[in-house]
Amino acid sequence: MSSSASPRPFVYDGDRLVCSGVDVAALADEFGTPLYVYSADAVRERVAMIANGFAGVDHTICYAVKANSALGLLKRLGALGCGFDIVSGGELERVRRAAPEAVSRVVFSGVGKQAWEMDAALEAGILQFNVESEAELELLAERAQALGKTARVALRVNPDVFAETHPYISTGMSEHKFGIAIARARQVYARAAQLEGIEPTGVSVHIGSQIRSVEPFAAALQRVRELVEELRKDGINLRNVDAGGGFGIEYGTAAFDPAASVQQYAKALRSVLEGFDAHLLLEPGRFIIAQAGALVTRVLYTKQNGAKRFVIADAAMNDLIRPALYKAHHEIVPVLLDASRPASKADIVGPVCESGDFFAQDRETAELRSGDLVALLDAGAYGMSLASHYNTRVHPAEVLIEDGKTVLIRRRETLDDLFVAELY
Ligand SMILES: *Cc1c(COP(=O)(O)O)cnc(C)c1O
């Protein structure tokens, strides 16, 4: 199978949708719906594409756990040699359980780290804290001193670079809450270098998510390089240059060659880093897992309200919130092709009591009928990790297809699971 054929592991075998060779309808029958289906093979391929792009560059891929934090996924990424970018003590605990050997490759990002989270990360011995404010730096120094540890620190700088993406996932401009203004960074590094318990080891930048052009990444990294060079003159020697995540994918039907596009991304970063001695950290999330996954759902009902046709699925915004939150587009494809079906336009919606609970509006597909299975493609990233229990709905099950075998990595929740923390 060549990577140019499809950027997704979900393809048709005759009239049946398969995921890395495994029949999707059979999975739905066995595990029920809604069901998240992922291909471990596709994940492995994406990691290899990145590693290829940066071959010869001293680098570590720190997968961004928030994109999809399934333990079964983290375990496999850890085994591939990946590190992790975490944003909470909860995510640290996930890495500790699923990939304990990778804890030394963890970077800890986030604007609101709490003392207990710092303590846990200091005890675990993570690679680096990506510090986002001076106040955080002071608290981290205090915690490190209290525990007799040293916190390796990068400042997350805000490079004030514009990256074209959805406003909710753009982070690299001065109006955003993220990072420390790059103009102030030298001053803050000088303070960090004085603080007991703090060892400045790197600098980090992350300009946003689902960014499709490589120029903003290169522009941000160029500013970071200049900063590191200045700091080295000041006698502060930083080794880790963390370029962040955010590299995007194609959610629609336009041609997309992930291997070629990651090569372009790598080329742009490599040209900025030429002649520069540093350890590059990368924090991809979406690029690795989005297209490896789909949300499989069954049509419950269809109905006509005036001029509009509605297809009501058993999955909802609580399972996959991207369309409701960002008006994000997901391709929606039938699990079984039926050439006799006429084309039909409909809103594909879930059962949740919100008008925002839609997966697509006025979408043309082969007519969908009650009982049909459909797959929402590219749902591997920011799907399950953003799922909620809204409307007292249980989380879907998750299965991973690996070397032709099906592995259940999360059973469907029961209602009892939902009530365990409640008192009455
Ligand atoms: C969300 C996030 C990432 C991952 O972003 P993707 O778009 O999924 O690649 C990486 N680093 C940081 C700091 C983030 O907040």
TrEMBL record:
Start and end residues of each Orn/DAP/Arg decarboxylase 2 N-terminal domain: 42-290
The keyword Cell inner membrane appears for this protein: no
Binding-site residues, substrate: R286, R322, Y326, E354, Y382
CDD domains from the UniProt entry: PLPDE_III_DapDC
EC number, as in UniProt: 4.1.1.20
Entry cofactors: pyridoxal 5'-phosphate
Cross-referenced NCBIfam families: lysA
Subunit and interaction comment: Homodimer.
Function: Specifically catalyzes the decarboxylation of meso-diaminopimelate (meso-DAP) to L-lysine.
Official protein name in the record: Diaminopimelate decarboxylase
Organism, as annotated: Granulicella cerasi
UniProt gene name: lysA
